[in-house]
Amino acid sequence: MGDLATLLLLLILFAISGTWLTLSRARDKAIQEARSRCQQYGLQLLDETVGLSGLRLRRLSGRRVLERRYSFEVSIDGNDREAGHLWMIGNALTALILPTIELYTPEQTDNPLERTPVPEDGNVLPFRRRFRDRDIRH
């Protein structure tokens, strides 16, 4: 009876260590993906790390697979911290969310809805407001 309990304990320990190694390799792949995507979009990956923030079952090609969500922080100009997220199934990136900022040079237009005040000092660029159909009242 003691040999069976020892064998069961060893199997549980091997399963736990195997799961930990698999998740560790997946996290390394997620760090690599986050780093390359941040570099592609001109963002700085802060702390050079990601953290597992969620798991969910997802149906893919008729079967259920486990999808992992990793969260990380990025900086646009070195003075801010914005959240980013990526989802992975196995080693494949399935979704990515990065903060988007639309910087532009203000233009003078005849439409008052599109007009944005020009900042008085030259080092601030305002955000362009995005209009939807419901924002424009006829």
UniProtKB/TrEMBL annotation:
It comes from the Bacteria. Pfam families: DUF3301 (PF11743). This is DUF3301 domain-containing protein.
